[in-house]
# Entry
Amino acid sequence: MIRISAVATALCLVIVLLGGCDATGSGQVSAAGGEGATVVLVPKLTGSPFFDAANDGAQAYAEKHGFQVRYEGDPIADVQKQISVIKEAIARKDDAICISTLDAAALDSVLKEAMAAGIKVVTWDSDAFGDARMVMVSQGTPAQLGEMLVEMGAKSLTSRGLDPTGDAIQYVWHYSQVSTTDQNSWWSAGEKYIAATYPNWVNVAPENYYSEQNAGKAISVGMEILTKHPDIDLIICNDSTALPGQAEVVRRRGLTASDVTITGFAPPNDMRKYCEAGIVERWGLWDCQVQAALGCYLAQYLAGGNRLKVGGKLDVPEIGFVEVMPNTVLDPNAYTADDSGVVLLPSRTEFTIDNVDEYDF
# Structure
């Protein structure tokens, strides 16, 4: 773990008392983190274009800003592997963990064990329970992301000559699993948005389809959807493994975006070939490289003895000011405390054939 000298500790205490070594609601603070800290970056799975690209961004950022990132995961999305990685970090006395959780409930006790051992815990992409981490770096609120998913589908339906406001659009959701908190919140918000905005739409599989972030299963589940629902109009894939798997199924069936609309979240590099082939018209994401870099930076900042409190703003090098918001921005029933909050990414991006070549991740 990093070591803070007695002089540095005393100096930080003075700065805290003057209002400058923590991000409080009283003002904007420039970030100075834990020099030489080790942050364990834990993805849902390795080998995924989304998570590996996120790691690339975090590694490049850490190298420039004086801390270390250890990328540890497994090619299979396995919560037991995530538990093992966290326990190994505790045994090594690492400084911080930045994790995209597979299952908040399953990881709750081990993340609390890590915090009790003095390890700073930050989440990104997919959250833990609010009392089992300090900060969540979120891609957006459920309402923002649920609406974005639905509206990308509506735009593509319109391009096919359908009327999203008048036609009885048949649709389904295909994502990883109900225990993945972020994806499930987008589905829930998306369903509410559909009910309010497109009441004629019909969810032909309200139980949803899940492929557990397994690339092979994403294809088999995608095939099942088209087999069971040959007249399906829209498939919403709010998971970066489900979307390319579903697109591959459409390609194998000899279909295009003129026959069935699929949309969702995935990296541009993973979907470019399907866009160029006319299989997917539009999809979206956020900059996962910035997200992982920011998550790791905040983790090492906390490991340096700094605090992040709800209502505070922090000036992060190259990224700019971020605000720590209450956990209730993601869930109105979430755990609330001054030292547990959410930082939102400033924007999300919609990809089409017109802009996909502007991105490389």
Q: What stands out?
A: Residues 142-159 form the longest helix (18 residues). The radius of gyration is 21 Å. Residues 1-21, 24-31 have pLDDT under 50 and may be disordered.
